[in-house]
Design a protein that fits this description.
It is a single chain. This protein is an alpha/beta fold. It has five domains: about 1-160, no CATH class; about 255-365; about 405-515 and about 705-790, Rossmann fold (3-Layer(aba) Sandwich); about 540-685, no CATH class; about 825-965, no CATH class. Helix 27 (about 540-570) runs antiparallel to helix 33 (about 645-695). The radius of gyration is 33 Å and the shape is globular.
């Protein structure tokens, strides 16, 4: 057997294409069992250091790491360690120093891969990595490769196992979702947590103090997770209180009452969800049948939006938060059926409460969970961080590390030419469409972006920081082999940046845009992943794996439906009770006592009145408090403990059995659900290969910060070496940390910390002064730690009257491009910059929080100013300006709603997605808005179109409205 096993492993290692070979192994019903059998056939050190180590080293082929997002490799690795004889023998050989160089290389790689698994699995192997004898074997290993891996293993393990010190004020114990380890915290809050008012939130100075400790990264990630999640919870908590009428407010979620369980939805495409039947038609669908009903659902995608958060309320008690899964086929029914995805930890509790409820209702919430969930999940998975020293422990005076990739000779020459002459024409060097000469500050920024491992480029308003960023990306694209991940906060900024790259001559075939195609411009749609993946087909090996996983998903789906059907029964049948007792080992021998003696097909036992004694005869008599009847002589004596039980004890025992059976059925639902969802995850990982096939061929990957966390598995599989972040001053640090990977070789941050900070709840902001400082970006934090940064000095946007204000208050070194001084004056107005002073008081909107305004907890509005804005717009129209040349800006969400009403009388105000979402979120606008067909005018909050500026005395408060005509800046 050992000889055959050796030949089997050697045959695998002889295959010239590891990716194809291992995929065939995983896609075969017999492949993995044969592998495990071969590995466990011989556990002697000679076999471990020979065929076993050779097979493990065969798995190190680079292409295997990327196939299906690494899922194929993960499955094989887990099969190796799930072979107890092999894994235990490997551990013993490592502890007793019996691994050769070949064996140590295989073992160190395998252990590192195990620690790099999703955290819930990786933590299982932390104890192995902490074993002193194993650490000694690896840290003193025979090769540099093994010793370097050992250092990473020690570092990852210290972050995996880092714990807060036991402290009265520390994390843990406040409620059922408060833990010292963030990996145990459910992202969706529990009802107890929502009722709790004293969360553990670390402050910025506590984070800074922990950075130099061995577990500095773990505590930094811990703090980022807790603060970001609390930012989400503040909004959710308030919205639920309003929905349940505990608190007054405008944001009343859609509430659907009197729901009942009808089944489970497992379509083998999405995770399973509970089907809840409405008692009557929904108001929005009433009177609509057939095609009209279908058309309404197709046109109103935000109605019961897929993946939106909902709150399950049973008999006026909040049971859990969950996710709505929109199934149009079920919504077309009358009355409709809703699908609700319950978090795994509370499935049993929720199902039990629904089963016995008088009134079950769902409340749909508007909190954008998608903007948090992917980032929070990825924060839990961070175990190591590239450039950790600079990000956490930078100190002034340290040298600036170079990027972790060698510059080409052409790149070195380009940098030397620019150092000699900052105005050196880049047209030929970068193959640009026109002459391009940089001023001195632009050249410094450009060079910093090429030669520093972390570069910070500050661009005051209108100085062209996006242009410099696109030039840096063009140079890296032309003069290196590194892939570039471009990350922006908004879809608009992403499309603009990718457009700049295309203008500079980068081919469309080298760029891919991840994320929603609905929010992309026409030009960006052509390079979107959604468009490109449609032409990709899986290989034969991948289809075999897919079919195997689909078969497993189908079986799990069937099991789940059966388990739920059993749970829905009003009461267990007599057959169910006997079956349960047959396998019950605790307590008296009930099954034997209820079994009809001498039960044969050709015999029939008849009672005194000629009634046949069926198989439930004894069970029925026992439940009615009687003796064994016609079987009293046989059973009454043999099973006295059962038949002498008093009536009260019998009732209690029957109740206990039913509870046990209900618990078993709930366990079956839970286990089948986990198996079903796990199969879907593997199916999705195999389907991901279509995306990866596209992304592998690209040099530049563009996405928003949210998409970077959502597509993290695909992105990290292709290992982009460069992370370039636009709008870095407006992006939360957690979003950038989750976009980094262990393979990131260079980080380029482009932004301006003196403009808008990231948007967070007022209580967590720098401006509130409580010390949490969640809206202090990584960009700002590094600059405040005196990390060297470059500043662009010449602005090309504002006319001099406007730039003078900026220069005096915030940017004393800012100079105007000569072209800004030759713009025509605003027609019909005495001056190009006008301040209006009036005495009409604004109204404080205490029930409308302004999420973007971190300096105030509530929004404001002023009707006088809104009417003045309308008159000015009309007047500008009389001067010959088109409405698409005019933008009206306000710093307040309440005033934005008022402006929409006033300007909507004559025009169709155009909002961007973020402003629209925030108006809906604040309860100031319905989810669907009409296209009025009037002249279109841009209306926006400040920061969507222009930005306020921070100075030593605070934020400059702009007037409620700004007007911009053509070429006025």
């Amino acid at each position: 057997m050992s000889s055959n096993s050796k030949q089997f492993l050697e045959a695998i290692c002889d295959q010239p294409e590891p990716a194809i070979c291992i995929q065939r192994l995983v896609g075969s019903c017999h492949g993995c069992p044969a592998l495990q059998s071969s590995l466990s056939s011989n556990t002697l050190p000679t076999f471990l250091n020979g065929p076993t180590a050779a097979f493990i080293n065969y798995l190190q082929a680079h292409e295997l790491k990327t196939i299906c997002g690494g899922e194929v490799l993960r499955q094989i690795i887990l099969k190796v360690v799930d072979t107890p004889l092999t894994w235990d023998a490997f551990l013993e050989a490592a502890r007793s120093q019996k691994l050769t160089e070949h064996g140590a290389e295989a073992f160190s790689w395998l252990l590192l891969e195990l620690l790099s698994l999703p955290t819930d699995k990786a933590i299982t192997y932390a104890a192995v990595a902490q074993d002193p004898s194993i650490q000694k074997q690896l840290l003193q290993g025979p090769s540099v490769k093994v010793r370097l891996r050992a250092q990473r293993i020690v570092h990852i393990t210290s972050n995996l196992t880092a714990k807060h010190k036991t402290d009265v004020g520390g994390p843990g114990g406040r409620h059922d979702n408060d833990f010292a380890d963030i990996r145990q915290i459910s992202i969706l809050p529990t009802p107890d947590e929502l009722a709790s008012k004293d969360p553990f939130l670390p402050r910025a100075n506590e984070m800074d103090n922990s950075h130099n400790s061995r577990e500095g990264l773990a505590f930094h990630i811990d703090a980022q997770f807790r603060l970001l999640r609390e930012d989400m919870l503040r909004d959710l908590r308030e919205e639920i209180q309003i929905a349940l009428m505990v608190k007054k407010g405008r944001r009343k979620g859609m509430c659907i009452e009197n729901l009942s369980m009808t089944g489970v939805r497992c379509d083998e495409r999405q995770p399973w969800s509970l089907q809840l039947q409405c008692v009557e038609d929904l108001p929005q669908l009433q009177g609509k049948t057939g095609a009209a009903r279908r058309k309404f659902l197709q046109e109103n995608t935000k109605f019961l939006k897929n993946d939106s958060v909902a709150c399950l309320v049973v008999d006026d008690e909040v049971i859990t938060l969950g996710t709505l899964i929109r199934d149009d086929n079920l919504l077309e029914r009358n009355p409709p059926v809703l699908c609700f995805q319950i978090p795994k930890p509370v499935i049993e509790k929720a199902l039990l409460r629904i089963k016995t409820a008088n009134n079950v209702k769902l409340v749909q919430l508007s909190t954008a969970l998608f903007a948090y969930e992917s980032v929070l999940k990825q924060l839990k998975e961070i175990k190591e961080l590239s450039m950790e020293e600079e990000i956490l422990r930078w100190e002034q005076g340290k040298s600036l590390p170079l990027p972790n990739y060698p510059p080409s000779t052409d790149m070195v020459k380009l940098m030397q030419d620019l150092e000699t002459d900052h105005a050196f024409d880049l047209k030929d060097a970068l193959k640009l469409p026109s002459q391009t000469k940089l001023d001195e500050s632009q050249t410094k920024c450009f060079l910093a972006g090429l030669r520093q491992r972390i570069s910070l480029i500050q661009g005051p308003p209108g100085t062209g920081k996006s242009f410099i960023g696109s030039l840096i990306a063009k140079a890296i694209n032309d003069y290196s082999k590194e892939k570039i991940l471009v990350v922006c906060y908004t879809h608009h900024a992403l499309d603009q940046f990718l457009g700049d790259l295309l203008k500079l001559g980068i081919l469309e075939s080298d760029i891919v845009r991840l994320g929603s195609i609905k929010k992309a411009t026409a030009r960006s749609q052509a390079i979107s992943l959604t468009q490109m993946r449609s032409s990709v087909r899986l290989t034969r090996e991948q289809y075999e794996m897919l079919n195997l996983m689909k078969l497993k998903a189908s079986k799990a789906s069937h099991t789940l439906r059966e388990a739920f059907a059993g749970f829905q029964q009003a009461d267990p049948s007599k057959s169910d009770i006997l079956e349960h007792l047959e396998f019950r080992s605790e307590g008296p021998p009930f099954f034997g006592a209820f079994e009809i003696p001498g039960d044969r097909d050709d015999m029939m036992r008849v009672g005194r009145k000629g009634k046949v004694a069926n198989r439930f005869y004894l069970l029925d008599r026992w439940c009615r408090g009687k003796d064994a009847g016609i079987f009293q002589r046989e059973h009454g004596n043999e099973f006295q403990i059962v038949w002498r039980m008093p009536a009260k004890s019998r009732i209690e025992a029957l109740k206990e059995w039913k509870e046990e059976m209900l618990k078993e059925r709930l366990d079956s639902i839970h286990e089948a659900g986990i198996a079903y969802d796990a199969s879907l995850e593997r199916i999705n990982a195999i389907q991901m290969e279509k995306d990866l096939r596209v992304i592998r061929q690209k040099r530049i990957i563009g996405c928003t910060t949210t998409a970077a966390a959502k597509y993290v598995q695909a992105i990290q599989s292709v290992a982009p070496g460069i992370l370039l972040v636009e709008e870095a001053g407006e992006i939360l640090e957690s979003h950038i940390l989750t976009a980094l990977s262990p393979d990131t070789k260079q980080l380029i941050l482009i932004g301006d910390h003196k403009q808008l900070r990231p948007r967070v709840h007022h209580d967590l902001s720098v401006e509130k002064g409580c010390g949490y400082d969640l809206n202090r970006s990584l960009f700002e934090r590094l600059i405040l730690r005196n990390y060297p940064h470059q500043v662009l000095s010449q602005q090309h946007r504002m006319r001099p009257e406007l730039s003078a204000l900026v220069r005096q208050l915030t940017y004393p070194d800012l100079i105007d491009d000569p072209r800004t001084q030759r713009r025509p004056d605003l027609r019909g107005f005495r001056d190009n910059l006008i301040f209006v002073n009036h005495k009409e008081n604004e109204i404080e909107m205490e029930d409308v929080p302004d999420w973007k305004d971190t300096t105030s907890p509530s929004s404001k509005k002023n009707l006088f100013e809104a009417k003045m804005a309308l008159k000015c717009v009309r007047y500008l129209g009389q001067q010959g300006y088109r409405t698409d040349n005019i933008a009206v800006l306000t710093p307040y969400l309440g005033q934005l709603r008022l402006l929409l009403d006033e300007l909507g009388k004559d025009n169709d105000p155009v909002l961007n997605d973020l402003d629209s979402h925030e108006l809906v979120r604040a309860g100031l606008m319905p989810a669907a808005s009409a296209d009025l067909g009037k002249p279109r005018i841009r209306i926006s909050t400040i920061g969507r179109f222009c930005r306020p500026f921070y100075c030593k005395t605070g934020t400059i408060r702009c007037a409620s409205q700004f007007f911009y005509g053509p070429n006025e800046g």
